[in-house]
Design goal:
The complex is a heterodimer.
Chain A lengths: L2 E5 L2 E3 L5 E8 L7 E7 L5 E7 L6 E3 L7 E6 L4 E6 L8 E8 L3 E4 L3 E5 L2
Parallel strand pairs in A: 2-11
Antiparallel strand pairs in A: 1-3, 3-8, 4-5, 4-9, 5-6, 7-8, 9-10, 9-11
Chain B lengths: L3 E4 L2 E4 L5 E7 L7 E6 L6 E5 L3 E2 L7 E6 L2 E6 L8 E7 L5 E2 L3 E5 L1
Parallel strand pairs in B: 2-11
Antiparallel strand pairs in B: 1-3, 3-8, 4-5, 4-9, 5-6, 7-8, 9-10, 9-11
Classes of the chains: A mainly beta, B mainly beta.
């Protein structure tokens, strides 16, 4: 069974940093691209970033480019999202998701709240 | 960037109704379109991939069609457990979600 478990969220002040993790199990992590997708409270889904299986290809939404960094450690079956210079508009539930025919499996999400 | 427009934003229907949700892309995305169902408080779940392929474990009352810029998700006979928000998503060029259609019972 595919499982994706996010962690690392919380309350952070504007301008500060936070690093999210996503532990994958139930599939060969190193064979799949991965994504981060977010959902602001009461709003729709917004794709944030993608990384290929070997980290060769990385893409970001314009809204986070230059502030967020996606990475992965295939030996640890873990996906990361380093977030810096956080803004109030980054407040959202952040989902880790596997990339196959688009996006197939999603984690349950981790909440990030940016507020003073 | 490709924009995805879903309609209607809110749909009320009765149990047993045939329900049709629309998604339009701002440019040709061929058939690189998925549909997701998100129930309140849950993560999205993949229903349909590559326009018309049913994800494993999804009931056959869900179906998808279309190509190019116009796509449709159909629920052949609405069930109470289908109350949710439905999102389309294109992955032909970058990644873009539609704003969603909230489906409620009449």
């Amino acid at each position: 069974e595919v499982q994706l478990v996010e962690s690392g969220g919380g309350l952070v002040q504007p301008g500060r940093s936070l690093k999210l993790s996503c532990l994958a199990s139930g599939f060969t992590f190193s064979n799949y691209g991965m994504n981060w997708i977010r959902q602001a409270p009461g709003k729709g889904l917004e794709w944030v970033a993608s990384i290929s299986s070997s980290s060769s290809y990385i893409y970001y939404a314009d809204t986070v480019k230059g502030r967020f960094t996606i990475s992965r450690d295939n030996a640890k079956n873990t996906l990361y999202l380093q977030m810096t210079s956080l803004r109030s508009e980054d407040t959202a539930l952040y989902y880790c998701a596997r990339r196959r025919t688009g996006i197939d499996y999603w984690g349950q999400g981790v909440m990030v709240t940016v507020s003073s | 960037d490709i924009q995805m427009t879903q309609s209607p934003s809110l749909l009320s229907a009765s149990v047993g109704d045939r329900v049709t949700l629309s998604c339009k892309a701002s440019q040709n995305i061929y058939k690189y379109l998925n549909w997701y169902q998100q129930k309140l408080g849950e993560a999205p779940k993949l229903l349909i991939y590559y326009t018309n392929s049913l994800q494993t474990g999804i009931p056959s009352r869900f179906s998808g069609s279309g190509s190019g810029t116009d796509f449709t998700l159909t629920i052949s006979s609405l069930q109470p457990e289908d109350v949710a928000t439905y999102y389309c998503y294109q992955y032909n060029s970058g990644d873009t979600f539609g704003a969603g259609t909230k489906l409620e019972l009449k």
